[in-house]
Design goal:
The chain has 371 residues and is mostly beta strands. It has two domains: 66 residues, no CATH class; 287 residues, TolB, C-terminal domain (Neuraminidase), CATH 2.120.10.30. A four-stranded antiparallel β-sheet has the order 4-3-2-25, with no helix packed on it. A four-stranded antiparallel β-sheet has the order 5-6-7-8, with no helix packed on it. Strands 9-10-11-12 form a four-stranded antiparallel β-sheet, with no helix packed on it. α1 packs antiparallel against α3. It starts with a helix and ends with a helix. 33% of the residues are buried.
């Protein structure tokens, strides 16, 4: 073997190896799971924007009042401050007014007030029961439930209380109207042979269609903001649960699956979340929030007194909400080895560098002696 040629070849090999050292950082990427491809993905729910305000019926000092809070549970306030029962609030589409039912004049009637609780006006004046109001999307009309004609029916009136008209005229009970976002349909509850079902009819009361048609009480329908889905609560599985379906009744999904007794769902203004009531360990109803697919359920704020019939309005104010439950995890296919930390990267780089240098020195000495 030509030793000079061997030394030259060895020198070239050492140079190539040292140059290869520049590629080592690429073999050991530093950072988080994104360096290799994710295996577990946590939703960004550690803090999330909760927009708008929620008005609801709350128990205070053995009385029921209309309360309001920001959608993240802060800034709780009493809007009615009345010694008699007030309940079933509903927002006007522009968020400036709230319609509700109250017993303040000795009978269940429907009232309207500004969003700060001022300027209260009575809309109905009938010895029968009037309640469960729902706004027309353009804010000009209100649908409500009344038994003034001998049984529970759906009525419509102007926002000043005029032109109160029965639109169902059905011998069985009808209640809980909910107007579709485009104003063309009304979802409501009809009692058939002691079974409550969700129906959808035209806004004038014509063409009612049963969209649930299942044994077990289905109630409190509420439209998604895009008008494509209806959320409601059902006791078809012997416990109150929140369901979502397409507006025609197809693609039924159980969102809560018997976590507890849950009821009275209402969509967030952007349709990404649903507020609802759940029964706590004291058998009292609390306001909780979950994603519209049923994930990430958590109690809203610190209000712990009994609550009922929440209504969610508006896109502001927006504040951060800190969920009390862990964020959901989505599994994804494993695509590569786990990530390497930056400290491990530097240690590996140093070890390889030392090995190559020592190897180069020993090889040079060996060939030099042979020459």
């Amino acid at each position: 073997m030509d030793t000079d040629t061997g030394v030259e070849k060895m020198s070239r090999m050492i140079i190539v190896l040292l140059f290869g050292m520049l590629l080592v950082p690429g073999l050991f990427p530093a950072g988080g799971p994104d360096s290799w491809g994710k295996t577990l993905r946590y939703e960004n729910t550690a803090t999330q924007k909760m927009c708008g305000r929620i008005v609801f019926e709350g128990r205070t000092d053995d009385n029921s009042e209309i309360l309001i809070m920001d959608a993240n549970g802060e800034n709780l306030a009493n809007l009615t401050n009345n010694v008699t029962y007030s309940w079933s609030p509903a927002w006007s589409p522009d968020g400036r007014q709230i319609v509700f039912a109250s017993y303040r004049d000795g009978n269940n009637e429907i009232y309207i007030m500004d969003a700060d609780g001022s300027n209260v006006r009575r809309l109905t004046n009938n010895p029968a029961f009037d309640g469960y109001p729902s706004w027309f999307p353009d804010g000009t009309k209100i649908a409500f439930t009344s038994d003034r004609d001998g049984n529970s029916e759906i009525y419509i009136m102007n926002i000043d209380g005029s032109d109160q008209t029965n639109i169902t005229k059905n011998p069985t009970g009808d209640a809980f109207p909910s107007w579709s976002p485009d104003g063309e349909k009304i979802a409501f509850v009809r009692s058939i042979d002691n079974d409550d079902e969700i129906f959808v009819m035209n806004a004038d009361g014509s063409n009612p269609v049963n969209v649930t048609n299942c044994p077990g009480s289905d109630s409190r329908p509420t439209w998604s903001p895009d008008g494509k889905k209806i959320a409601f609560h059902s006791y078809r599985n012997a416990v109150g649960e929140i369901f979502v379906m397409n507006a025609d009744g197809s693609d039924l999904v159980n969102l809560t699956n018997g976590r507890a007794t849950e009821r009275d769902p209402v969509w967030s203004p952007d349709g990404t979340m649903i507020a609802y009531l759940t029964k706590n360990e004291h058998y009292e109803m609390e306001i909780w929030v979950m994603n519209s697919d049923g994930t990430n359920p958590h109690r809203l704020g610190d209000y712990q007194d009994p609550a009922a019939r929440p209504a969610w309005c508006c896109t502001s104010p927006c504040k951060e909400e800190l969920p009390s439950s862990p964020p959901p995890v989505t599994e994804e296919p494993f695509t590569s080895p786990p990530p390497v930390t930056e400290s491990f990267q530097m240690e590996a780089y140093a070890v390889i560098l030392i090995v190559l240098i020592v190897g180069a020195i020993l090889a040079y000495v060996f060939f030099k002696k042979r020459s």
